[in-house]
Amino acid sequence: MTLYDIKPKFQNLLRPVVVRLHARGVTANQVTLLAMLASLLLGGLLMYFPKPLLFISLPVFLFFRMALNAIDGMLAREFNQQSTLGAILNEVGDIISDAALYLAFAFLTGVSPWLVVLVVLLSWLTEFCGIITQTLTGTRNYRGPLGKSDRAFMFGALGLLIALWPQYTGITNIVFGVAALLLAWTCINRCRSAMAVKNA
What we know:
Blueprint: H1 7-23, H2 28-48, H3 57-78, H4 84-102, H5 113-137, H6 148-164, H7 171-199
Helix pairs in contact: 1-3, 2-3, 2-4, 3-6, 4-5, 5-7
């Protein structure tokens, strides 16, 4: 069970927005690029100004990015905008955005940079395992326990904690340590799922 399981309900809430965007000529690829560029901008800002208070922007933006990710997928599927370029932009944009946003934590005083980098690399690995499953079985794998949406929730909540109670910034190392273990578990789950399908 992950936050990905409630995605259909979230999409239903966004459908009126998607319809209006399509009517105005907005494409799925444009939304994907907007999400990536905005992530790079915010991540760069937090790295350049690593002030705990600024991390209050992270949960707000991660929710906004989650909405953009849902919108680009709906535009692609429901308005015949699916393309090879779109698939590439979607996968590459996600891992670039994750790196830009989560690496910002490494610039906070008292946070272990190598632990943050490890989590970013493991996040990339989970997506790679999901793509491998798609290559082998034809279906993209979103198994948890720490998929993309779950990571956004975890690190968004951490950003809020740091902004409101900067004296607890040190807890970031614990959160990233737990995240590393959960990401490794996620990789194993996705690979086991692919093997189970192929062996069935």
